[in-house]
Design a protein that fits this description.
This protein has about 400 residues and is of the alpha+beta class. The chain has helices spanning about 20-25, 60-70, 70-75, 75-80, 105-120, 155-165, 175-180, 180-190, 195-210, 220-230, 240-245, 295-300; strands at about 5-10, 10-15, 40-45, 50-55, 60, 85-95, 100, 140, 145-155, 250-255, 260, 265-280, 285-290, 310-315, 315, 325, 335-340, 345-350, 355-360, 365-370, 375, 380-385, 390-395, 395-405. The strands form four sheets. It has a nine-stranded antiparallel β-sheet. Strands 2, 3, 6, 8, 9, 10, 11, 12 and 14 form a nine-stranded antiparallel β-sheet that branches. It has a four-stranded antiparallel β-sheet with strand order 18-23-20-21, with no helix packed on it. The longest helix is centred in the middle third of the chain and has 20 residues, at about 195-210. The mean pLDDT is about 95.
């Protein structure tokens, strides 16, 4: 393994909320079994590592490849600070709404992990909150024409208007006015299931009718509530995560737009396809709308319960005429840039840290500083060893995403 650039193959996650066509088409896979393809992971996560594809077609684990020579594969600086490849790149296809969730800070992730370890809870147990010691900030960029998500709490005025104008939720208005947003959210999230059913049953039925008669748009909370139940689910156990849809910002990102989600910010992906880059972690605290483990008490310890104005990242060009744009993130674990052009072009760079480049659209030829070439087709990716000069050549419509560690 003497190359400086390696073609890598990621891992598909077949979560139930995933779509059936986007990722198989990207990866040139025939989905004959009609399985949900939810996520495609590119990185060196210990549980779901990518594989290096050697020139002879054989594969080895990227995780073990890095472990065997971390100074070479990560750089001395990245290895001394992080001890591993600190980021995980993903492609997501969201067909059904994901769980209401937050991610812990690095300090709280370490405390939570050690606490669950002391309790003897297996790391792969379904009731485990903390799978590792790391935080999980993340940035995403829309690949579809529209990507819909929930992101943080709406303004106090907007929440008051929602409660006042929604008959079934108006009973909560005095609590909100007297004790504030934190007391309101804690109250609804700790509510007994029988009371949740009583409060939301009529509301869900009303939203189903409104959506069926085209009285709602995707900017209305009721549209997403109705989508959850319009497949015929009975209204005997209404998830309390429904409350969050009415209280959070509904955000629509256009293709190429992104958003950053820091620790504590509640969010949920609703619909669409994106590329996502995060710290190398699988720590998620969930509050509803999922069959996975829910721990409301733990989530309430870490959630930021205050209004947030979503900040949409448009991608800033590196230089005036550069094909490369950056999505600025306030973390040291990762950075995400997009390289895009139409027609014939060449891109040159030096990998100061480990890089993963994914071909989201089009194909390209990448040449290292020894003159060796590799062809990367649409849906494929490559891993670049630090301190490697390289050139990318391609023609046609090209959209690449480059994940790397910012200069430390």
């Amino acid at each position: 393994m003497q190359d400086k650039i390696y073609k890598i193959k990621g891992k598909v996650q077949h979560y139930a909320w995933g779509g059936y066509d986007f990722i198989p088409h990207l990866l040139n896979i025939h989905n004959a079994e009609h399985k949900p393809y939810a996520e495609y992971w590119l990185g060196a996560h210990s549980l779901h590592t990518s594989e290096i594809i050697a020139d002879d077609g054989s594969c080895i684990s990227l995780y073990h490849f890095i472990k065997s020579n971390p100074e070479l594969t990560l750089s001395n600086k990245v290895f001394s600070v992080f001890g591993e490849l600190p980021f995980l790149l993903k492609v997501l296809d969201v067909r059904e709404m994901l769980s209401i969730q937050v991610h812990p800070t690095k300090e709280n992730a370490l405390k939570g992990f050690e606490k669950e370890e002391s309790f003897g809870i297996p790391v792969n147990a379904p009731n485990r909150n903390y799978k590792d010691k790391n935080h999980k900030p993340e940035v995403m960029v829309a690949l579809s024409d529209e990507f819909w998500l929930l992101h943080g709490f709406k303004s106090l005025n907007a929440i008051e208007a929602t409660l006042a104008n929604t008959t079934e939720l108006s009973i909560l208005l005095p609590l909100f006015k007297k004790q504030g947003l934190k007391a309101l959210y804690q109250f609804v999230m700790e509510m007994e299931q029988a009371d949740v059913n009583t409060m939301l049953h009529t509301l869900v039925r009303k939203e189903l009718h409104k959506k069926a008669t085209q009285q709602l748009t995707k900017f209305d909370a009721g549209w997403w509530v109705a989508k959850i139940f319009e497949n015929g689910d009975e209204l005997k156990h209404i998830d309390k995560g429904i409350f969050s849809i009415y209280l959070f910002n509904i955000v629509c990102l256009k293709k190429g737009e992104g958003i950053f989600q820091q620790a504590g910010v509640p969010h949920a992906y609703l619909e669409g396809q994106n590329v996502e880059l995060m710290a190398n972690s699988d720590n998620v605290l969930r509050a509803g709308l999922t069959p996975k483990h829910i721990d409301v008490a733990e989530l309430l310890k870490h959630i930021i319960i205050e209004p947030i104005i979503p900040e949409v990242l448009l991608g800033k060009a590196i230089t005036l005429h550069s094909p490369e744009s950056e999505y600025l993130c306030p973390v040291s674990d990762f950075a995400l840039n997009k390289i895009q052009w139409q027609g014939s072009n060449q891109y040159e760079s030096v990998a100061s840290t480990p890089e993963i480049i994914l071909a989201a659209e089009g194909s390209f030829i990448i040449q290292d500083d020894t003159g060796k070439n590799k062809v990367i087709k649409q849906g494929e990716a490559c891993y670049i060893i630090p301190n490697t000069e390289y050139k990318i050549n391609s023609s046609g419509s090209v959209q690449l995403f480059k994940a790397f560690v910012p200069i430390l």
